[in-house]
Protein 1
Amino acid sequence: MPNTRILSLQAEHVGILQGRYERVLETHGYDGLLISSGAAPTRYGDDQSWHFQGFGPFLHWTGLTGFEHAWLLIRPGRKPLLSVYQPVDFWHASVELAQEPWLAAFELLYSESRSAPESGDISQLAVIGDPPLLAEVPGEHNPGALCGALDETRVHKTNYEIACLAQANKLAMAGHHAAQDAFLAGASEFEINLAFQRATLQREADAPYHSIIGVNEHAGTLHYQYYDTTAPTKPRSLLIDAGVRYRGYCSDITRTTAGAGEGRFGALVQGLEQLQRRLGSMVAPGVDYVDIHRKTHLGIAALLSAAELVSGLSDDDMVSEGITRAFFPHGIGHFLGVQVHDVAGKPELSPADAPFLRLMRTLESGMVVTIEPGLYFIPSLLEPLLSGPLGHHVNRPLINELKGCGGIRIEDNVVVTGTGRRNLTREAEV
């Protein structure tokens, strides 16, 4: 049950969105906007549907993740109309709309039809959502310039959104602690996943993304998607990247644990932990996020040198020669909100030295970002380095020793404040 503060903040949040959307609609020449909540498509050649979680703009307004075929009509100067689909159905239960104070800001309509509500006297109507669901709806569908402007309304989080993200972090950290305990007790990946779900009280299908749970060499696959049901004879490492969705808002947290007797790998985990904290302390208004990414590579170079994984090269040379990218191939992070990789992060293409970076903006107060450096032993990336002209700088025997541990990633969720940062994940870790 949400606390009274969050309910109060949601009412404030709706008022802020009303103002933001009215300004966007006026700028782009529309006098109304219809938003579809979406619906789960049926699998091809089957009568079963994919799991449903909802369309981002609809969640941004309502946080209602399980409401298929609902509609939200935004009308400048009037209350938004929220149309909730409630069929008479003995096969499935209808989702109940909790009677919470924020609903007073809406005009409510309950309908047995999946059809969009009538738009009334709106002459210039924009409609956004999954195109197949909009086919019979009058209005201009998913206009690009308008959709881009609406994405911008999600960049600076309201106090309500930050409170939801903080709660999502708190719930997820309980799961991470349970997962670590299960790993250290000898559990399999499947059992570790169950431990996370038990602690968070969230079905995996309702999580913001499929949990990444890699033991030993599986930790070296960045988005490892399977769960072994049998624990390895010698559990050397655990990498778990898992989050919780709370009122539509996502946490995205990664932790890495060294197994018993893995002193050398454990030292690398501690080294990356220290680097991750330093990078997190860089988050502040006016900071170019790309600079944090580039500082990460210098930090990875220093760690490779200190661990004697690479020798005979300066930190700058390791970065410029691409050595650090073989150990840290992804970006330092992304926006976070009602989507794990939230929108509007890339108004321009990523630079050549950071092709997978998902966020290309100068940080501003109200943004929420992830900070997630990694250091991995991925054969397909390291073999070309080892066999190339710089291979003699790389400690192959040590890499062979450590590659069975897969890799390390440590990830926090950080709010940009007016004067610096607020680390939601570290707050929840206490």
Note: The first strand starts at residue 32 and ends at 36.
Protein 2
Amino acid sequence: MALNINSLLIHGGIDGDETTGAVNVPIYQTSTYKQDGLGEDRGWEYSRTGNPTRAALEKLIADLENGKYGLAFASGLAAISTVLSLFESGDKLVVSDNIYGGTFRILDNVFKNFNITYEIVNTSDIEAVKAALTDEVKAVYIETPANPLLTITDIKAVSDVAHEKGKKVIVDNTFLTPYLQRPLNLGADIVVHSGTKYLGGHSDVVSGFIIVNDKETADRLYYLQNAIGGVLGPFDSFLMIRGIKTLGVRMDRHVENALKVAKHLESHSAVTKVYYPGLLSSPGYEVNKKQTDGPGAMISFELGDEYDVKKFFKGLKLVTLAESLGGVESLVCHPASMTHAAIPKEIRDEVGITEGLIRLSVGIENVNDIIEDIDSAIAFAKR
């Protein structure tokens, strides 16, 4: 029976426990497993290599992304690091020009030490992507919507161009989740997530995922997952399964609220620019509409010069100034000094991550309360 994604969120993966009839997958809080004799195990040996609770989660995320193989990690960056470990010295990646600062940091300060290099490209410009696909390039790494400027990249167009030249396409799908966007269906080869965000949804667990369809790639990733060891523990795997069950209802409210907040900000006299792919004024509106089931709930915006950004953050009462995003509560941050501080200022300035940029993760509170709090903070920030 083919399930709608709202049913798949609840019944996908390994549904319940056949041994006891428990409707939830148990937490197998164990590091090792009894073997019946030399070379005679019951499918499990050691929990870094495999754990039944984690396996249920890995099957679930694969099902949701319409993939064949899923892997769960202790963080989004552990997942990204494992993907980057597929490459060898001399390889090069084409990378979206505004991506999560942690991704840039590990490329620039870790993998560059192993002669795995990168080129920053506006991946929403297909001609720019084509021009960047030189022989040493092995993959294109994109976020769409990108963090923090919500730039939209046409996944199918990039995949078509990359595959013509024998390159892989990696997509960070954190902002939209498989509820709103499924990159493998659009031609991507590898999907990564920070499960800490919308998938978990309650700001109480850190996790990461990789999903692929190709068995050869999956086998290599499983080897790296076990060899590097940045795996998700059984209790956190349980929390992720629990969080994912409500992803649909949460994302529906997130998107509903975000669209109202974005339209309000766009009409606000103090706001000079709003970045949100759900607005008709967004350059990526049509592409995002074509390849997703919704624009997500991340908004970035800038205030006019007569407003003090630091005072804006001080003036908030309901919306919380904090790292991260995607929780049920509304969160706000200053990308230039927080999430993207690892990116050199000249690069931030070039792509538009200004000192005045504010990134808002719209939660599922009453939308009028969110808007009232933002308006009050803007008024407080007037110089």
Note: The mean pLDDT is 96.
Protein 3
Amino acid sequence: MKRWGAIVLTGALLLAAAGQAAAQLTLKLNESLGPGSVEEVALKHFKKVVEEGSKGQLQIAIHLQDALGKPDAALEGLMTGTLDLYSGALEYYAQIVPEELNAISIPYLLKDNAALRKYLASPTFRKAEQRLLERGIRVLSTEYNAERGPYRVLVSSKPVHNVDDLKGLKIRMFPNDVYIRSWKNLGATPVQLAWTETYLGIRQGVVNAVTAPIALVNPMKFTEVAPYIIEIKEYPQTWPIMISEKTWKKLTPDQQQLLVRAANEAGKVYTQTTNERIAGDLAAMVANNKAQIIKVDTTSFRKKMEPFYDELVKEKLLSPEILATVKGL
């Protein structure tokens, strides 16, 4: 009888362990930046909050440097459910909802982070969130509080002091047609290139420069090959975490709320870490790479862009409603 009791107890323990294992879910997250980046710091906080808050039932597997696919593939993965989570600049989603999201990455249309947050809270932008959801992508970072940058620069192998210096400058671009056309309008020569291939592209002369949030310049070692840092402040950015709607529907309401809370906490960590690193990063690049910081008057840049906004409206790439909303901010 004792032996039979031991067998029953062992079986019960095995069943309990199997049930616990079945209940545990690992979510795969893809990110373009690498080890040591602000993104990694924020994502580690996201992971910690989720895993502790779920008592280990939800696990977050972070994959850096586009290990699970470049942005286009990541967005496709979110829509099909083959990728659970993706963190990247909001403008990457413009290929899915072009009008509302093209607006945020058009140089000099939105003035600063405060204007961006107002736009993202507007009824106009809520339509974009709904269309993303219809395509299978849900916003976790509902507060849009991760200030990417917090401002953008042009890192170049050649000095740029005004808009005329952009003529013929080969600048690395991400896959966004309106953004590419914007820089053509400013006189540059855009070249589409993967973010992870940009350093080598500058060194080999495929491109002369890259636009980027200032916080990403030092981690990517860009000033080793392009010593000029030009403060262009072309548009404000935010870095949300998104989830596949197919993954979202697998979760309990408590798990869903936990992920939203963790994403918004990660956004705060992202902004704080970004601001803490700026001074040290600039000093390091000046000391190690003889980087030169150039502050430009962007008035001429802004004036050159204004007719382009009307051109986009005529082509139905930017709606009059969105342009009016942005100008009203």
Note: The first helix runs from residue 2 to 23.
Protein 4
Amino acid sequence: MNQPTYLDEKFDRVKKADFLKYRSGDLPTWCPGCGYFGIMDAFYKACRQMELPFENICTVSGIGCSGRTPIFVNSYGLHTLHGRSIPVACGLKLARNDLNVFAVAGDGDALGIGGGHLPHVARKNIDITFLLFDNSIYGLTKGQSSSTTPLIQKTNSHPAGNPDSPLNAMKLALAYGASFAARGFAGDPEGLEDIIIQATKHKGFSFIHILTPCVTFDKVNLTWNRLKENVSYLDSVHDHTSFESAMRIANQEPFKLGLFFQDTSVPSYDENLDRLNG
């Protein structure tokens, strides 16, 4: 067997780093240790693996720490209003069906002020990929309780403990009729990369619930150590075509990662429009 030459090794290094072309020249402003770095690492690599043209990618965000995402992607992007990444992304996709549209939001942005948009994009099955960065707290506004903060957890807005029951993002997406629903973990960029690829290739609305820590304002709940101890991938026997199985697993902890549910028989919104206009 021939030994690799210096040029071979150099080529391999360049090839492995090619995903960095999808990263913009702007330096991220997230806190050191934030899980969003792992999420974006997975996103860049997924785009590279699919060889998506830069000009055919558009990321759409709302407000919050996740709202800065489009700034760090070497493509088109829209930084919109609080809770409005989904409707803006839907309008963009319907106007430009040739684009790969990625909507991004945090748990507060997506399930708080923007919570009314998730059921409608799911039932319409508009062909966008939605990445929910869930750290179960408001990070940008300094640690208040969010829609997914656990009951009784102490936060800056509830120093005696959060009195509100948390929403289960995965159960909501499934109940609303998402034709693709998966969960990833910021601490496993390789696994998340595979999920993003599957979601992007799915024809219809793709929902990705991403567990990630807020290292600055949450020292109790979704910390790196606790997450690493409480996540595992779905068993190979899991039937991702079974809605009942997906709902049952969505209610379990430790948290399961991977593809919960996919229904390829449901026509996407643009396919329904073509049928009506034809």
Note: Residues 1-8 have pLDDT under 50 and may be disordered.
